[in-house]
Design goal:
This protein has 371 residues and is an all-alpha fold. The protein is 80% helix and 1% strand.
Length: 371
């Protein structure tokens, strides 16, 4: 652990060097963002056409251009497939991927460590604990009227509340006399995540067979339950959080140089930390609420982009949103076709790709981490 904390300084030096190159990489980063936007648009179109009733990309574009009303009159089947079945799933996947990747980029900028991830400060674990507790005992404790009123929003509301509660607890522990210690936040986050995982295990122990099956499918991650209703609940929160995070790019660039240097450059460091933590909690909680636990996106995407676009957060954050969306949309497309008619949980695919990549990062940075 000492090595991890000690690596912050090394990462700061690395980040400062990368920041000096930001000016040279700006045109390259803008071109990269444009390419990513085109790739995302193409991926969305292809994904809308993939499924048991396959549809050529040209036909998908035609259906999109005509709109749901005109297509429903001429070809009701195509309208239902594109607008009612696949569109909410694809859009939800794009927002979930963008949210997780942006949350990872924010955490890495805040901790000045490319190995940081929302899961490391307990946000994902807090959301998971709240969802599992709701599945096992929540419906019993809540009155029938309240549970019925919340309906399909019960699980998303629990996930967001759990992530937000973990974030507030983390911030309260790490903040003293108005100043937030990043090192304390990191250590407290690890402890909170361990506590949340232990309590999650306790609720799993109490669950019956049906609840255990629900918990297992949810914990593996997936978009099988996507609907316009779910998108309407979580989508605005994720989209607003992603867009607001772009405003923190310049401040995170200054923070890479150190808190004192950032302060002298005119950055309100405490306000920057509060906004970054709040946005991480908001987008992570909303994403976990709708898709379950999908790991490694927050580490994988920002690190890949940093290698190509550089460490300037003005480009890294929007790039993470675009590439994260592409990654989850493609993963979902593979998950629902590779074992059709069964559906593979997305979390298995991202873990299969992300875990080896994470190990490669650890080995590559072993000298800095002193592992």
């Amino acid at each position: 652990m000492t090595g991890v904390l000690g690596s912050l300084g090394g990462n700061a030096r690395h980040g400062a060097a990368a920041r000096r190159d930001a000016g040279d990489r700006s045109p390259r980063a803008l071109v990269g963002l444009a390419v990513l936007a085109l790739v995302l648009a193409a991926t969305l179109v292809v994904s809308l056409g993939v499924g048991p009733s396959g549809m050529a990309p040209a036909r998908v574009v035609e259906v999109l251009v005509q709109g749901p009303g005109a297509v429903a009159a001429a070809d009701p089947g195509a309208s239902v497939i594109v607008w009612q079945i696949r569109m909410p799933r694809v859009l939800l996947g794009a927002l979930v991927g963008a949210s997780l990747a942006v949350a990872g980029a924010l955490m890495q900028g805040l901790f000045r460590n490319p190995l940081a991830d929302p899961g490391i400060v307990g946000v994902s674990s807090g959301s998971a604990l709240a969802v599992v507790a709701t599945i096992v005992v929540g419906e019993r404790l809540l009155s029938a009227g309240i549970a019925g009123l919340l309906g399909v929003f019960l699980i998303p509301a629990a996930a967001f509340a759990g992530g937000l509660a973990a974030t507030i607890a983390l911030y309260a522990i790490a903040t003293r006399q108005g100043r937030t210690s990043v090192a304390t936040m990191l250590l407290a986050g690890i402890a909170l995540a361990a506590l949340a995982n232990a309590l999650t295990g306790f609720f799993v122990f109490l669950s019956d067979d049906r609840q255990l099956r629900d918990i297992t499918f949810w914990s593996l991650g997936g978009l099988g339950g996507a609907s316009w209703q779910k998108l309407a609940v979580s989508g605005p929160l994720m989209l607003a959080g992603i867009l607001l995070s772009f405003l923190l790019g310049r401040g995170l660039n200054a923070l890479v140089l150190g808190e004192a240097e950032a302060f002298h450059l005119g950055v309100s460091v405490q306000r920057l930390k509060r906004w970054a933590i709040f946005l991480v909690a908001a987008v992570t909680g909303a994403a976990v609420a709708t898709s379950g636990v999908i790991g490694f996106v927050g580490i994988l995407v920002p690190h890949l982009l940093r290698l190509v676009l550089g460490a300037d957060h003005r480009f890294l954050l929007p790039g993470a949103a675009l590439l994260g969306a592409v990654l989850i949309v493609v993963a979902d497309m593979v998950a629902r076709t590779i074992a059709a008619p069964a559906e593979l949980p997305i979390g298995i695919l991202t873990a299969a790709i992300g875990a080896p990549f994470f190990l490669w990062m650890l080995l590559r940075r072993r000298s800095h981490l002193d592992l």
